[in-house]
């Protein structure tokens, strides 16, 4: 196909300028070093703008070549190479820090690069890059030699231009035959246009499918590359620098199945960018890492049984889209099929859409959407936000403080991993099971944003510390029962409903908010703190209760202690002969219009049938104030007080 490139040191243009080649060292990267010719071409007029021209006159080689012909002619106006040359130069300038300007030879202007053609049978290459009269000249075959078709292609035009700009083949010539370097046998045209290795059936891409057929099995040609390859981009950027101005804003690269019949490689200069494959239905394998290729599957024509063998080589989108090294693409909008998507080290936004998807966020603070289907999402490192969607979901946060949002009509298996994780439950018909592998060292939270109409019981899973009911209940008649675990829990009940809150073991912080809430405490439950809503702002029907399940009244000791501000506004109920106690914050603070000031419980009920109201508790605090709590496990103060003032022990 493409031919040799001349190795000359100086090309002279008709304007009297010199296109000088400056020697450059190898990069140290073994793959691109094998396609570097170790020179940088300088434009005749200086700067970073190279001129180019289409030849207007023919040239006859005084020393005819048996392989590359004798006479070179102007490229006919209707030949595809006119467009392919422009596409190749434009593509090169998008990623390398160079520009190309067309000049007109009919105005006595000859470019640093000059393009011609050959239609001789003796011209046996698809193209060559050579020197003619001191000018860097690229010659393309425009007629098939010996009946063998070499159709014009982006590959040929871009290949020869890359020769002129300093790239070499990945092979060496030995006894007139091209031989690959031993460590580059797995490199194909898909990696670098400087390779002669066909894409299909290569060592690197053994599964590649490139043949294009119509529905009748008629061969339409091969899927072509429409851009320089990943290694070409890296090598030419090493020589000329990177073009960070290209697509420097937020860019969306949208592909459709009707038009995807090629291989493309993306370079992007900056911004927050998105790959959009949402129009596809057959799934994908997508990788946002630079230097990788993604497969976006398209439908293969349904061929007749007699031609079904062609399906194994028919183009199906495998490895269709590549991302150049250093091209930072942040986001992916996946297909409607089964996707496997890999993020990169950036803060990715990845949408799986429909289908059974597997998504890996990788490093960075990622936002992952599963969509509908049975999906598995991995947040990876960083502070990730993971949205479940409908279907059966396995959601894994990994390291970092992650947030999980549970979708409606779903079954969810949630793995927080390391970090302070939050599980937001807000959708109807959703079940969940949480697996927090580590105890302590983090603080994990379940938060409800939805609503229910019936009584519901919630248990804090192992190794999850916190529960937030928020506006969980939409009916004042519904009741939520929240039961903590052995950790130091923080449990917030619903804002308006009548909650039952059981902290369980550990030193818990409990908040019922509005509504008639019930707190249940058992012996050995630790040192709990209760925050109740301001009694001055609630109606008479709001009655809050503390139930001491296995604790009698004579085991209680009441005291008034200092709060956060240093005021003695907290009520502490100590269980004698134990370390257990309950602190009710701001019991004695009378500041109005503050949510948790004057936060009293209307009833404290003990196991022996006694019930103490607010005024009785205040009296008992006064009776016990200044006294030392008895070392024995009981006291007669409460029974004596009730008998004296109420005529009976209630």
From TrEMBL:
It is found in: Secreted. This is Haemolysin-type calcium binding-related domain-containing protein. Its main location: secreted. Its cofactor is Ca(2+). It comes from the Bacteria. Residues 235-294 form the Peptidase M10 serralysin C-terminal domain. The lineage of its organism: Bacteria, Pseudomonadati, Pseudomonadota, Gammaproteobacteria, Enterobacterales. Residues 570-615 form the Haemolysin-type calcium binding-related domain. GO terms for cellular component: extracellular space.
